[in-house]
TrEMBL record:
Keyword Metal-binding: yes
PROSITE patterns named in the record: ZF_CCHC (PS50158)
SUPFAM superfamilies cross-referenced by the UniProt entry: Retrovirus zinc finger-like domains
Coiled coil regions in record: none
Protein source organism: Zophobas morio
UniProt keywords, alphabetically: Metal-binding, Zinc, Zinc-finger
Superkingdom of origin: Eukaryota
Keyword Lipid metabolism included in the entry's annotation: no
MF (Gene Ontology): nucleic acid binding; zinc ion binding
Protein name per its UniProtKB record: CCHC-type domain-containing protein
Domain CCHC-type: 288-301
């Protein structure tokens, strides 16, 4: 048995009782000697009283020290962790603290098989039980998938059965032709950044045909780029992995963002130096296309043209014209 365990030590009360009896006997013996001296008529000197007090104080201090030592040893006694299959059991708090990524079959562009594969890998690495893993997956599911989880009542409630039922309930709706079309036609202008384009392009190619050689994948990514400098950099550097390719794209993303910040903002000042009040008072420039006079446009011209009237007259110049009867010969 390990030292400090409850089975190897007696209780604190059992240890205190002998100490208390011993201290009581010592104090009782000192008191009897004092009474004997008083009965014989011998008055105790101040030195004798001082020795008696020092003895009592030292006994009390020793008792307190022993009580403190027994209490400390009792608190140090802890349970030895049990070992199973050569390793310790993982703590419950560290297992419960993980969280799966959310998945909505109506909004996510990847199938549920990929999401379940990631969750299964996490379950195997952390040695998580079936019940806890199913509960965590139910928290991460959204939309119709969460509704399906709430109504899921299987005969065997295991993780494998849960994955099979989800794949049957939410199959991949994208056909092989649609995957090939997406992998071939996706361009960088369809994404917000070059890094996002690279991730989506590689994922689309992988979904279309996972065993496609790397040089063909690289040429497809390069073909979809609408940025000449990035295309030239890929041809020169020839990245050999997905990570190296995404690193090149992220570097040019950073350069583009830096270039946008350094550009001077456009001025919002009015080009005209004339005050708005003066511009309103000034009349339009040029002459009227109808009457040939300055100060107004054709739309505001007050000239009245009749079919039988030969010469137009402007109201601003000649006043309101009078009707004249013109006879044709």
């Amino acid at each position: 048995m390990a030292e400090g365990s409850p089975a190897s030590h007696t209780s604190v009360e059992e240890r205190i009782e002998p100490l208390a009896s011993a201290d009581g006997a010592t104090i009782h013996g000192v008191g009897e000697r004092q009474e004997a001296e008083d009965e014989t008529g011998g008055l105790s000197s101040p030195q004798v009283k001082m020795d008696w007090q020092e003895t009592l104080v030292s006994l009390m201090a020793a008792r307190q020290q022993q009580l403190f030592e027994l209490t400390r040893r009792t608190n140090m006694a802890t349970e030895i962790p049990t070992m199973t299959s050569g390793r310790t059991q993982p703590s419950t708090s560290s297992v419960v603290s993980f969280r799966l990524a959310e998945f909505d079959p109506e909004e996510n562009d990847h199938p549920i098989e990929e999401w379940l594969a990631v969750a299964t890998r996490l379950k195997e690495e952390e040695h998580i039980g079936h019940g806890l893993m199913i509960a965590k997956a139910g928290e991460a599911l959204k939309g119709s998938a969460h509704h399906y989880y709430c109504n899921w009542r299987p005969v065997l409630r295991t993780w494998d059965e849960f994955c099979k039922d989800l794949i049957v309930a939410f199959p991949d709706r994208e056909t092989a032709g649609a995957r090939a079309f997406t992998a071939a036609t996706l361009r960088s202008t369809d994404c917000e950044s070059l890094s996002e384009y690279g991730i989506r392009k590689l994922r689309a190619i992988d979904r279309f045909y996972a065993a496609l050689p790397w040089n063909i994948r690289l040429s497809m990514v390069e073909y979809g780029l609408d940025h000449g400098e990035t295309q030239a950099a890929i041809r020169m550097q020839q990245p050999g992995t997905d990570r190296e390719l995404l690193k090149v794209l992220s570097e040019y993303d950073a350069r583009r963002r830096k270039g946008r910040k350094t550009q001077a903002p456009r001025s919002t000042k009015s080009i005209s130096l004339v005050a708005p009040e003066k511009r309103q008072k000034r009349g339009p420039k040029g002459v009227c296309f109808r009457c040939g006079q300055k100060g107004h446009h054709k739309a505001n011209c007050a000239v009245r043209l009749d079919k039988d009237q030969k010469e137009p007259h402007c109201w601003y110049k000649h006043g309101k014209p009078k009707r004249a009867l013109v006879l044709k010969r």
